User: Which sequence fits this backbone?
């Protein structure tokens, strides 16, 4: 397969306008998921929970696969799997090490159950493949309304607990000492994260959900340290990745996930390069300033040694003078 054939399969824009009109529900669904993913992804990065997102996605995949096997609603099954995983991680994995171990146990279990359910499924192969890599043609108006409701729940929940969750994410020990319900906040956040993961799995698939919930927030943190700017940039990057990936996937013959993950990865690479470019002049200026102030590495040490010697000699001479004056006085009464 030559390069031209690969490009023809990646970018096929035949009847693109008709596809845009036909799949506009998928574009709106992608915009909703980008908004939710960009907002909640900042807290995922603050709390160092990228591994947990992957574990929740695996159980979401298992729930969707079981629902597909028994003929139930895939969205409901995926949502139930995500919520169950989020509750387990939130309750059992209170500490970071415990959370990682719990996720490490849940991931292969969820993946194995999902593969077993897909192996027993006798329906269309495309339905099985879509759970792993995502699809854009399955969003009807009923699903769009349900996704809008779930997105509103996640956004409203984040806005309610935003300030205490930010405090607990930055310094949980101090937040606990101040009386904040850190455990309850963690559990509430995990529930919201489970819903967000279930929403993302429907479009981008279980295997590549990190590209939407992690990469935009990581790129935003490369460019700014302001909490407000990080959230704004994360949402913008998530929307560009999601909506841009959908628009490219409409004109191609591939699943949506390669387009979304590629855009998200390129955004992160550019942000990393910009961060390195901006930090290099600052470090050079800091080194130049330190050199100008210190006057070179040897001079500072010599000055320090001479200063210590001067202090020692002056102290010794003063002590000698004191002894001499004391010794010259009469042994009887002090001189008047």
Assistant:
């Amino acid at each position: 397969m030559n390069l031209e054939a690969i490009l023809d399969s990646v970018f096929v824009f035949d009847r693109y306008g008709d596809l845009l009109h036909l799949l506009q529900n998928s574009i709106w669904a992608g915009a909703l998921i980008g908004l939710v993913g960009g907002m909640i992804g900042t807290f995922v990065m603050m709390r160092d929970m990228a591994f947990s997102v992957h574990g929740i996605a695996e159980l979401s995949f298992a729930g969707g696969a079981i629902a597909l096997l028994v003929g139930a609603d895939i969205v409901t099954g995926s949502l139930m799997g995500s919520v169950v995983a989020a509750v387990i991680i939130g309750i059992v994995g209170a500490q970071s090490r415990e959370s990682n171990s719990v996720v490490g146990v849940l991931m292969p279990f969820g993946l194995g159950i999902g593969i077993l359910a897909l192996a027993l499924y006798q329906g269309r192969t495309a339905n099985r493949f879509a759970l792993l890599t995502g699809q854009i043609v399955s969003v009807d108006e009923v699903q769009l309304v349900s996704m809008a409701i779930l997105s509103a729940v996640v956004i409203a929940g984040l806005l309610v607990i935003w300030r205490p969750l930010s405090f607990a994410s930055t310094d949980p020990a101090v937040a606990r000492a101040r009386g904040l319900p850190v455990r309850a906040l963690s559990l509430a956040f995990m529930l919201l994260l489970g819903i967000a993961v279930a929403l993302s799995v429907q479009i981008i698939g279980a295997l590549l959900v990190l590209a939407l919930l992690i990469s935009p927030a990581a790129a935003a943190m490369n460019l700014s340290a302001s909490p407000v700017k990080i959230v704004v940039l994360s949402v913008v990057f998530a929307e560009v990745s999601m909506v841009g990936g959908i628009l490219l996937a409409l004109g191609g013959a591939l699943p949506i996930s390669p387009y979304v993950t590629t855009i998200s990865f390129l955004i992160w690479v550019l942000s990393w390069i910009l961060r390195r470019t901006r930090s290099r002049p600052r470090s050079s200026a800091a080194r130049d300033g330190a050199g100008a102030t210190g006057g070179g590495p040897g001079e500072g040490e010599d000055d320090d040694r001479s200063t210590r010697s001067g202090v020692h000699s002056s102290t010794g001479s003063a002590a000698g003078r004191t002894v001499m004056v004391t010794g010259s006085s009469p042994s009887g009464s002090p001189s008047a």
User: Anything to note?
Assistant: Residues 295-301, 303-336 have pLDDT under 50 and may be disordered. The chain has 16 helices and no strands. The radius of gyration is 31 Å.
